[in-house]
Each structure stands twice: as structure tokens, then as C-alpha cells.
Design a protein that fits this description.
This is Succinate dehydrogenase. Keywords: Membrane, Transmembrane, Transmembrane helix. It comes from Nocardioides islandensis. This protein is an all-alpha fold and about 260 residues long. The protein has one domain. It is built from nine helices and two strands. A hairpin with a 2-residue loop joins β1 and β2. The longest helix has 23 residues. The chain is globular.
Amino acid sequence: MSTGVTGPTRARIPDKTLRTDRWWLYPLTTFVIFSGFVVYATWRAFAGSNYFTEPYLSPFYSPCLGDCVNGASDFGQPFGWWPLSAALIILIFPLGFRMTCYYYRKAYYRAFWMSPPACAVAEPHKAYSGETRLPLILNNIHRWFWYAAVVVALILSWDTVLAFGPAEGESDGIHMGLGTLIFLVNIALIWLYTLSCHSCRHAVGGRLRHFSKHPVRYKLWTWVSRLNGDHAKYAWASLFSVAIADFYVYLLSTGAFDDPRFF
């Protein structure tokens, strides 16, 4: 029996495409945006500077566990010996969560590997092994990355609470600036993306034979299921928000402008 792209479960399309619309626009847009984010995130992750200005810590560097600037480490510096950027210690967890995400798999499979490029478009590859070999087999550990993503989201929530603190030169108490609002929007989108994950849906309601015997888990499952319908939207929105939050901190720390403070 034939396998790969000629297997019985693969679409048999004799022409290059059966589409008459601009089917290539979606994967092209995904390719451009993802590539831009990867370039930006790589630059910021390796920079190792301009990631903290009181009271804001860039989400790319949180928690800051390496040799960090004064005030940026709320959980100590157990990796103070680390010679590279502190962001490289923890970025593997949110990055791994996104790279193994079910939605992102669909997006970058189509945009980068064209496997397949789109519905009713012929498979350009001569072979297809699915997620049975490296590196794609690593996508099967998505559930474990989700657990780590929950921990990261909790830490970013604490950073958002700290964003209500005073900036340098201000008195103690509760304060709010434009950065505070950006952090609030960012953490809300990150939680929506994390909780709408397919792995979260399975964690709260999977392997239950009788929902009637588990009313709390059933309620959580129905709530997560509704969120799951917009998982792709939250994936995109949180991707933009985390980059915006980091870039805002970068602008403040480089002295591009002062954070507008409301109270």
C-alpha cells in the first residue's frame, strides 16, 4: 500500500490547485507575520538589555532568573552564572507551548512547509511522515508545555500586579500608567489563549465517562470548550500583545519617552 503523499488518506488532486480564489493570501500573511515575530523575538531574547524599567518587566524576560539588572528578579537569580541573556533561560517554555500548539501547527505547516498549502491544493512534497519523526514528533509533548505555560502565565499575572506599583521617583502606593494597561490587556489575552488550549480542554474534562457524576469538571469543560472555538483568535492576539508589551518596556528603558501616568 502506498504511503506518504500518495497514501489512501491524502487528497488526490491531479492539478496544482482546484481553487480559483486567492488561497495563497492566508499562508503568505502567516509566513510574513510569523517570520517578523521570530526575527523580533530573537533580537530581543539575545539582547540581554533594556528589559526592565520600574515597575515594568518585559514578558520575554519574566521570570528573570539569570544575571539580571537590579529590581528585575522577584524570584532570585539561581542562574546568575548563566553567561548569555536571561531570556534564553525561560523562553523555551512559552515558545515550546506555541510551537506545539494545535492551531500553530496548522498555520506554520501550511505557511512554511506547504504541507498542505491549503484545502484543494496539491501536495508539493514527494514524501510525508507526519509527526512520527524528528523534529515534528516533539509536537506530541504539547500537553507538558501547557503545564509550563500555566506557570508562566501565573508569573506574568504577578508582573501585572507589580505594574500597578510606583515608577522611579514616585511615592509608594497604587499607581497606573499606560504600561499598566498594556500589561493588563496582555495577561488577559495570554490567559485566554492558554485556557482555550485543546490540552486544557482535555485536562478539565478528559477521560470522564459520566459528566453527570462530575458537575464541576463538566462546567469547566463547557466553559473551556466555548473558549476553544476562538483559540486561533487568541493565539494571534496574544502573539501581538506580548510583543507590544516587550517593545513598550524597551522604549521606556531606552528613554524614548516617559510612561504616561494616570494616577
